[in-house]
Amino acid sequence: MISKGIITIAIGKKYIKQSKYLARSCILNANNTKRAVVTDSPDSLKSFYDIVIPWDNKVDPFSLKTRIYEFSPFEYSLFIDADSLVYDSIDEYWSYLNENSYVYEGKLLKEGNWYFNIKEICRIINVEWIPKFNSGMILFKKCDEAKQIFDTAYYYFLNHKKEEIDIPFFRGTNYPDEPFFAIALSKNKKEPINDYGKFSRTLIKARNIHLNIMKRKTGFIKNETLIHPIIVHFCGRRGGFYYFFEKLRLLTSIKK
Question: Among 79, 83, 173, 179, which is least packed by CB within 10 angstroms?
């Protein structure tokens, strides 16, 4: 088994295109880290990724992230959503896995709403809290504890209706993975860590945004704190605006 690496999912034309930009950013800023992709178009990505893993279409693509543990060829894995870019070396991330099996950034909720009513879900699944986080980045290592978290997330993906948990469709088409991971993390009592603003962040509700992929530069204010994440996740309309210009920069520097 390969020691450490980045893995992403690229199923469908949109995500295949995004995964190429992700690969370009890794080539530019983290080229010493192996890259793997699970995809339905292996030939189009074999020049971008060191390891191309064909997607078995018997596996529901919308549940695939909850099963990424099974697909990863790495002992230490950094999963990144395809619509993300890497702005610097990720070498410092691996130290978080020295004493942890599964690492994420977020906050614990005991009430309020996030995909569902927090207090009601805590009652149904008999936990004290639910973590709110962005699943665009998952850092984990191959071990029983991490596998149990992924297995629990996949179980609830398949059985949430039987467990009387109502999960709304994401954009009206498919189930989001975040609530299932949140349930799994709470059931397995895995709390978030303080990443000091270095893990992946979205640009949702961010301000004073400064990004330059060529200069390894990130900086923006989020939750009233100036952060410099190594990975930026370009989800949402605002993210798409900045993503456009960063993609142009990559195209001029990485010819593939």
Answer: 173
Assigned domain for 205 exists: no
| Averaged pLDDT of the chain | 93
pLDDT tens digits, residue range 183-224? 999 999 999 999 999 999 999 999 999 999 999 999 999 999
45, 54 in Cβ contact below 8 A?
Answer: no
Residues spanned by the domain of 80: 2-195
- Helices assigned H by DSSP within the chain: 13-29, 42-45, 68-71, 118-125, 144-159, 178-187, 236-253
- Nearest partner of 100 among 148, 152, 144, 140, judged by Cα: 140
Inside any domain, residue 223: no
Nearest-angstrom CA–CA distance, 73 and 2: 6
Does residue 6 form part of some domain?
Answer: yes
**How large is the C-alpha radius of gyration of the chain?**
18
Taking each helix axis from N to C terminus, what angle separates 178-187 and 118-125, rounded to the nearest 10 degrees? 50
Residue 84 sits in a domain of what CATH number? 3.90.550.10
* DSSP letter, residue 169: P
Residue 230 falls within a domain, yes or no?
A: no
Model pTM score? 0.94
